[in-house]
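Researcher: If convenient, please comment on what follows.
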Amino acid sequence: MRQVNILYGPPASGKTSIMGAMGGELSYVSVGDEFRRELRDGTALGSRLNAYLSTVREYPACLIGKLVTRAIERDNPEAVMLDGFPKYEREVPILGRIISDTEAQPGIMVELCLSLNDAFERTRQRFICSECGIQQITATQCVKCGSDNLLKRDDDDDIFFKRRYNDYIEASNVVIPVLKEMGFRHVPLESTPENSPEVLAAQIKSELERAKA
């Protein structure tokens, strides 16, 4: 049976880098990356999403649910890691329907722990390639396509970022206990300089193997 896992962590906690270090061992669905792709490609969905982004409003849960379901069905994986969903308690019932509709079961719920000061420091080092959309810790050249047109993320503005960080902390304190009741096993990990993406990826792989047993 397909297993749905969740990756939680405040912005800049290294979720994308950690999943890159996983080596494609499971399907990774980042709600933020999927939305940014829609915005970059100028799709009809992207236009609808941009209306919410421009007014700093949250995207409707129904749109997020459709996006997540489509990504799971597109890749048809045995195991999937969701990043950024569910963010709020009101989105949990949608996750329940996705699990039911895709004939899946709850797996692990990884929580990456990172202080606000450390998160701020990381935002000053990350960039996005305007050509292929890959996020990276470099300001010179894209590690994937070689483009030198690297940009700062709009949502890494200090004021906006602090709001996003605090919003995550408040929401996760509510959602994580609810997901534990649904059957997800809570796995807290420290996202510190000592714990590289490769180290954290290895720990997650071990927890995924344990979940299969």
About this structure: The beta strands are 2-8, 27-30, 79-83, 104-113, 127-129, 135-136, 150-151, 185-190. The first strand starts at residue 2 and ends at 8. The domain at 2-114+157-212 is CATH 3.40.50.300 (Rossmann fold).
